[in-house]
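The passage that follows is intended for readers who have already worked through the single-chain material. We present the inputs for a multi-component assembly, then the predicted structure in tokenized form, and finally a short commentary. You are encouraged to pause after the input and sketch how you expect the pieces to fit together before reading on.
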Amino acid sequence: MNRHDHFDNFARALHWGMAVLILAMLFVGVGMVASLTLRPVLIDLHRPLGITLLVLAVIRLLHRWRHPPPPLPASLPRTQVLAAKASHVALYAAMLAMPLLGWAMLSAGGYPVRMTSSFALPPILPHDPALYSLLRQAHGWLGYALFALILLHMAAALHHAWVRRDGVFEAMARGRSRTTTAADPDPEAPPEA
Amino acid sequence: MSTLPDDPSPPPPPPRPWRAWSAIAFLVLALGLAFAWVAGWIGPAGRLTAPRLVDDIENGKPFPGFRRAHSRGVCVAGYFEPGEEAATLSRARVFQQPRTPVDGRLSIGGGDPYGPEAQARVRSLALSLRTDDGQEWRMAMNSFPFFAVATPDGFHAQLLASRPDPASGKPDPAKMAAFLEQYPEAARFQAWAKSAPWSSSWANTEYNGVNAFRFIDAQGRSRFVRWSMQPQSAFEPLADTTRQQAEADYLQRELQDRLTRGPLRWDLVVTEAAAGDPVDDPSQPWPASRPRHVAGTLVLERSEPQATGTCRDVNYDPTVVPEGVALSDDPILAARAAAYSVSFNRRERETARGEIAKPAHAKGAEATR
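Having made your guess, compare it with the prediction:
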């Protein structure tokens, strides 16, 4: 049996790197829709970063398939296990869907899918107002949903770290075993006397 | 060594879990609030965002299915041919390829898609040029030679000051005076609007890009430019009486008439900035002595009603530029991109739902979306 208790270095690098990029993307996304001054700068960031995240999400999914994540502790209540599994499926679905929706939306809106000043991706859908309108709204709403999911994910991870202290957070935060991390002082809760 | 993940004994709970819970709640709330602030949902009252600017352009009376500004117009199509000099100015593919197909739109200023065409002070020409390498250049040009104001805030202030007073039906002179005091650059535009001659056709009107851009040549050198489309059709005045009495679709009929007789041409004239010329303020014209180059010829051959034409579903966002052309820091240019996108999203949604504004009265409005 593959009894491991932490994510490998590559999985952790992908997780934390993508965490920063995805949060940045969500802020860039809502910012460029609102701002009267920053849109051109932000959209030039948003498109290539989105496609980069699509590639990273595919790599991450393949890596996860080859290297399954550590199991959750047996002490975790069944409902929490289910919630964890469901939220991870939703996070992966959103990570893959967001860039694809963006690409499809630009195609249907008749916009060039510009990556750099000299390179654009081909359209993946015909230019059509009904399609565009649907995809534009889907891209926006899924963005809000993804942000909410990330907040939930973060809250759950910190719940593991600070309240349950069961090593689930450390499995992603550090490459060391739970025995080592359990000995680390918790910033929120001083060690018992 | 690692412990087994299926250790049956749960870890001891922290002594004061409320502290951990508060820290978690604080982090979630802080991120959520930062997100809402960036999105413009919370923040100082009156912070101008793209959706709010478009709301104020609509002023509670949008025409669903139409552009929120320059709502009335026609689709046009033709091609562009570069001149000899063009390739030395920018390495854009448009300037190398012998001929580039063009789709575009001729329109009038104002938000009423059924408003009388002849009476519009501002006319405009929007273009999309697609080259064989898949690159695209969109332009949105106007008949005014410079923009009224230097900033989006100025544009917003102008919008509010020029709203008709409900009592008189005309803009409140006191508000307009206050606006001019705060944005004195607008006086130049008002003088232009008063004195510039009215031409008789979309075809004999000059259209100006107004915003500065950068052209990048084959050696990677960058220069600031502005461009105009100068009509080859001779100027003819539009008589005051014609302007007042013309049918609402006067310009469309006149254009159709000319197109049945042959294609219409404009010279693309590129003006280079000298050091020190304002490249981030479209309200300030550059001196007339700046070098000018004819970079090519625009030829329009056909027109189509916008209800059924290609241009209906295109956002002529002037920040869509090809390799060899880059944006300047002109804040009006960025604001146009932001506002056009909001307008496009709204009208495409309405178009998809079949919510299209009908003319308030039938006269002159038949099938002229």
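Commentary: Strands of chain B lie at 73-82, 100-108, 123-130, 136-142, 207-208, 213-216, 222-231, 264-272, 292-305, 325-327. The first strand of chain B starts at residue 73 and ends at 82. How closely did your sketch match?
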